[in-house]
Amino acid sequence: MVAWQKKLQLWCSRCDRLKRESTDTVIERLKFVQKFAVDVTLDPDTADPYLILSDDGKQVSYGDIRRNIQENPKRFNQGLCVLAQQGFSSGRFYYEVQVKGKTWWDLGVARESINRKKAIWLTPEDGFWTVVLRNENQYKAGEHPPVSLSLRVNPEKVGVFVDYEEGLVSFYDVESRSHIYSFTGQTFTDKLYPYFSPGRNDEGKNSNPLIITPVSTLMD
Q1: Could you tell me the CA-to-CA distances from 112 to 17, 23, 147 in Å, in that order?
Q2: Is 38 within 8 Å of 54 (Cβ atoms)?
Q3: Quick one: average pLDDT of 118-147?
Q4: Is there a domain that residue 3 lies in?
Q5: Domain containing 143: what range?
Q6: I need a labelling partner for 112 at 20 to 30 A (CA). Which of 122, 126, 146, 162 fits?
Q7: pTM confidence score
Q8: Residue 102 and residue 207 in contact, taking contact as beta carbons nearer than 8 Å
Q9: Is residue 37 part of a domain?
Q10: Distance of alpha carbon 175 from alpha carbon 24, whole angstroms
Q11: What's the CATH number where 115 sits?
Q12: pLDDT bracket for residue 13 (50, 70, 90)
């Protein structure tokens, strides 16, 4: 068997393992990825004009009025999204986001070279690796086409883990200690930035902010 075939076989095996992880396995995996926790803060220079960021850069919510703020090449003009200040071009990193009480959100990572001035398509081909919530309980992974996800419970806190060299982006429900979805076998060349979209207010039902929370390491 040639080298590329062995590598493909390993990736397929890893993908299969991720799909059938037991609760105990996920807990051990979460303990492992939490070791790579990073301090993430939101970058106001990238925030869509309708978004409101907290002073500490840890929360983002939708505002009903478009803010009159200075245009710059980093800023999104569509998509109601914002990136973190911190970008990563190697290694592993992990962060957690509170999504409790929301009916609409996007979370994941985006490559630095994405087009920020046009409509956003949440696919790896367009530089996004995301999981999204729509209509209170419709979860999807941003593949092409999107992959519908059946979750046992609605996550209240989502953990995002990236292994740059392995081409892996994984999402976890921290509270229920379950695996949500993984993008595997990806090839990263750009710097990757944590990506957030709180969605519109949905007549007040989706007014809660997305909150970047400290990582609380799971105990035995």
Answers
A1: 30, 34, 24
A2: no
A3: 96
A4: no
A5: 23-213
A6: 146
A7: 0.88
A8: no
A9: yes
A10: 14
A11: 2.60.120.920
A12: very low
pLDDT per residue as tens digits for the range 46-94 = 999 999 999 999 999 999 889 888 889 999 988 899 999 999 999 999 9
Whether the Cβ atoms of residue 134 and residue 202 lie closer than 8 Å to each other = no
Question: How many Å apart are CA 155 and CA 100, to the nearest integer?
Answer: 7
Neighbours of 71 (CB within 10 A): 9
Per-residue pLDDT for 176 more than 80?
yes
- Least confident piece of the model among 29-33, 65-69, 80-84, 130-134: 65-69
Domain count, the chain: 1
Task: State the DSSP string of the chain.
Answer: --HHHHHHHHHHHHHHHHHT--HHHHHHHHHHHGGGB----B-GGGS-TTEEE-TTS-EEEE-SS-------TT--SSSS-EEBS--BSSSEEEEEEE-TT-S-EEEEEEETT--SSS----SGGGTEEEEEEETTTEEEE--SS-EEE--SS--SEEEEEEETTTTEEEEEETTTTEEEEEE-S----S-EEEEEE----TTTTT-SPEEEE---PPP-
Tokens 């075939």: give the residue.
5
